[in-house]
Design brief:
The chain is mainly alpha-helical and 56 residues long. Helices cover 46% and strands 0% of the residues. The protein is built from three helices and no strands. The chain starts with a helix and ends in a 17-residue tail after the last helix. The relative contact order is 0.14.
């Protein structure tokens, strides 16, 4: 799938997707959800949680 195709499926501009991929901006939760759904990846694969981390 091309970047343009993915961007179209998740309803954002290709440039926005490029900025996310290059770490220039962070996607909001809705965009992460859409990406996971389109790519058929469990949503928890996008996040890393460690039991021993302190929560402030």
């Amino acid at each position: 799938m091309t970047q343009e195709e993915l961007a179209d499926k998740i309803k954002i501009a290709p440039r926005s997707l490029s900025e996310i991929e290059n770490g220039k901006c962070s996607p909001n939760a809705i965009i992460v959800y859409r990406i996971a759904k389109v790519l058929e990846i469990p949503l928890n694969e996008f996040y890393s949680f460690h039991e021993k981390e302190k929560v402030l």
